[in-house]
Amino acid sequence: MRMGEGVEWGLHCCLTLAWLDERPVSTAKFATLFELPPAYLKKRLQSLVRAGILTSAPGVNGGFLLARSPERITLMDVVTALEGPDEAFRCTEIRQRGVEPAPEFARPCGVATAMRRAELAWRRELAGQTVADLVATAPAEAAARMRQRYARLTP
Protein backbone atom coordinates (compact mmCIF):
# COMPACT_ATOMS: atom_id res chain seq x y z
CA MET A 1 0.00 0.00 0.00
CA ARG A 2 1.24 3.46 -0.78
CA MET A 3 0.15 6.53 1.16
CA GLY A 4 0.58 10.08 -0.02
CA GLU A 5 3.38 12.21 1.34
CA GLY A 6 0.74 14.30 3.10
CA VAL A 7 0.48 11.58 5.76
CA GLU A 8 4.14 12.02 6.67
CA TRP A 9 3.73 15.79 6.64
CA GLY A 10 0.61 15.63 8.81
CA LEU A 11 2.23 13.35 11.36
CA HIS A 12 5.35 15.52 11.60
CA CYS A 13 3.21 18.64 12.00
CA CYS A 14 1.25 16.98 14.83
CA LEU A 15 4.46 15.86 16.49
CA THR A 16 5.91 19.38 16.19
CA LEU A 17 2.78 20.91 17.72
CA ALA A 18 3.03 18.47 20.62
CA TRP A 19 6.65 19.56 21.19
CA LEU A 20 5.86 23.27 20.98
CA ASP A 21 3.48 23.19 23.94
CA GLU A 22 0.40 24.99 22.64
CA ARG A 23 2.13 27.59 20.47
CA PRO A 24 0.22 28.05 17.22
CA VAL A 25 2.26 27.39 14.10
CA SER A 26 1.34 28.98 10.78
CA THR A 27 1.41 27.18 7.46
CA ALA A 28 4.29 29.42 6.40
CA LYS A 29 6.35 28.43 9.44
CA PHE A 30 5.65 24.73 8.95
CA ALA A 31 6.58 25.10 5.28
CA THR A 32 9.85 26.78 6.23
CA LEU A 33 10.64 24.27 9.00
CA PHE A 34 10.22 21.31 6.67
CA GLU A 35 10.93 22.95 3.28
CA LEU A 36 7.49 22.06 1.96
CA PRO A 37 5.24 23.80 -0.57
CA PRO A 38 2.91 26.02 1.50
CA ALA A 39 -0.21 25.69 -0.68
CA TYR A 40 -0.17 21.89 -0.66
CA LEU A 41 0.73 21.76 3.04
CA LYS A 42 -2.15 24.10 3.86
CA LYS A 43 -4.62 21.71 2.22
CA ARG A 44 -3.28 18.86 4.35
CA LEU A 45 -3.51 20.93 7.53
CA GLN A 46 -7.06 22.00 6.67
CA SER A 47 -7.99 18.31 6.30
CA LEU A 48 -6.67 17.74 9.82
CA VAL A 49 -8.78 20.66 11.07
CA ARG A 50 -11.91 19.22 9.41
CA ALA A 51 -11.19 15.89 11.11
CA GLY A 52 -10.94 17.54 14.54
CA ILE A 53 -7.23 16.76 14.93
CA LEU A 54 -6.06 20.38 14.66
CA THR A 55 -7.67 23.72 15.33
CA SER A 56 -6.88 26.84 13.39
CA ALA A 57 -6.68 30.40 14.67
CA PRO A 58 -6.60 33.31 12.19
CA GLY A 59 -4.46 36.40 12.45
CA VAL A 60 -0.84 37.44 12.66
CA ASN A 61 -0.18 35.30 15.74
CA GLY A 62 -2.53 32.57 14.59
CA GLY A 63 -1.83 29.18 13.18
CA PHE A 64 -2.54 25.56 13.95
CA LEU A 65 -2.78 23.81 17.30
CA LEU A 66 -3.63 20.27 18.33
CA ALA A 67 -7.38 20.07 18.88
CA ARG A 68 -6.97 17.39 21.54
CA SER A 69 -4.18 15.99 23.65
CA PRO A 70 -1.47 13.96 21.88
CA GLU A 71 -2.68 10.88 23.80
CA ARG A 72 -6.03 11.17 22.03
CA ILE A 73 -4.74 11.49 18.46
CA THR A 74 -3.94 8.16 16.85
CA LEU A 75 -1.82 7.65 13.79
CA MET A 76 -4.91 6.10 12.18
CA ASP A 77 -6.83 9.35 12.86
CA VAL A 78 -4.23 11.25 10.84
CA VAL A 79 -4.09 8.67 8.04
CA THR A 80 -7.89 8.62 7.74
CA ALA A 81 -8.10 12.42 7.76
CA LEU A 82 -5.56 12.69 4.93
CA GLU A 83 -6.18 9.56 2.87
CA GLY A 84 -9.88 8.98 3.53
CA PRO A 85 -11.67 6.08 5.17
CA ASP A 86 -11.78 3.77 2.16
CA GLU A 87 -10.23 0.33 2.37
CA ALA A 88 -6.93 -0.07 0.56
CA PHE A 89 -8.05 -3.30 -1.15
CA ARG A 90 -11.28 -3.31 -3.09
CA CYS A 91 -12.55 -6.71 -4.10
CA THR A 92 -14.40 -6.46 -7.41
CA GLU A 93 -15.25 -10.17 -7.53
CA ILE A 94 -13.44 -10.87 -10.79
CA ARG A 95 -13.86 -14.58 -10.05
CA GLN A 96 -17.60 -14.17 -10.69
CA ARG A 97 -16.99 -12.91 -14.19
CA GLY A 98 -16.40 -15.02 -17.22
CA VAL A 99 -18.18 -17.83 -18.98
CA GLU A 100 -19.55 -19.83 -16.02
CA PRO A 101 -19.32 -18.42 -12.51
CA ALA A 102 -19.52 -21.34 -10.06
CA PRO A 103 -22.01 -21.39 -7.12
CA GLU A 104 -19.15 -21.75 -4.58
CA PHE A 105 -18.25 -18.17 -5.40
CA ALA A 106 -21.15 -16.93 -3.28
CA ARG A 107 -18.81 -16.82 -0.25
CA PRO A 108 -15.96 -14.32 0.10
CA CYS A 109 -12.85 -15.64 -1.55
CA GLY A 110 -9.53 -16.32 0.14
CA VAL A 111 -7.93 -13.33 -1.56
CA ALA A 112 -10.50 -10.87 -0.18
CA THR A 113 -10.38 -12.50 3.25
CA ALA A 114 -6.57 -12.38 3.45
CA MET A 115 -6.42 -8.79 2.27
CA ARG A 116 -9.09 -7.64 4.73
CA ARG A 117 -7.34 -9.43 7.59
CA ALA A 118 -4.04 -7.73 6.69
CA GLU A 119 -5.69 -4.33 6.43
CA LEU A 120 -7.43 -4.77 9.80
CA ALA A 121 -4.07 -5.61 11.39
CA TRP A 122 -2.53 -2.51 9.80
CA ARG A 123 -5.41 -0.30 10.94
CA ARG A 124 -5.32 -1.75 14.46
CA GLU A 125 -1.59 -1.08 14.70
CA LEU A 126 -2.00 2.55 13.64
CA ALA A 127 -5.03 3.01 15.89
CA GLY A 128 -3.00 1.69 18.82
CA GLN A 129 -0.28 4.33 18.44
CA THR A 130 -0.71 7.98 19.29
CA VAL A 131 1.11 11.24 18.76
CA ALA A 132 2.08 10.94 22.45
CA ASP A 133 3.81 7.65 21.56
CA LEU A 134 5.76 9.47 18.84
CA VAL A 135 6.78 12.09 21.40
CA ALA A 136 7.85 9.39 23.85
CA THR A 137 9.92 7.42 21.33
CA ALA A 138 11.62 10.37 19.61
CA PRO A 139 15.25 11.05 20.52
CA ALA A 140 15.42 13.31 23.57
CA GLU A 141 17.19 16.08 21.66
CA ALA A 142 14.61 16.13 18.83
CA ALA A 143 12.08 18.24 20.74
CA ALA A 144 14.71 20.72 21.89
CA ARG A 145 16.09 21.01 18.35
CA MET A 146 12.62 21.64 16.91
CA ARG A 147 11.93 24.31 19.55
CA GLN A 148 15.23 26.01 18.62
CA ARG A 149 14.44 25.87 14.90
CA TYR A 150 10.98 27.30 15.55
CA ALA A 151 12.38 30.06 17.80
CA ARG A 152 14.63 31.23 14.96
CA LEU A 153 11.52 31.72 12.80
CA THR A 154 9.63 33.69 15.43
CA PRO A 155 10.46 37.38 15.84
Automatic annotation (TrEMBL):
InterPro entries: TR_Rrf2-type_CS, Tscrpt_reg_Rrf2, WH-like_DNA-bd_sf, WH_DNA-bd_sf. Gene3D superfamilies: Winged helix-like DNA-binding domain superfamily/Winged helix DNA-binding domain. PROSITE patterns: HTH_RRF2_1, HTH_RRF2_2. One of its GO terms (cellular component) is cytosol. GO terms for molecular function: DNA-binding transcription factor activity. Pfam families: Rrf2 (PF02082). NCBIfam families: rrf2_super. This is Rrf2 family transcriptional regulator. It comes from Nonomuraea zeae.
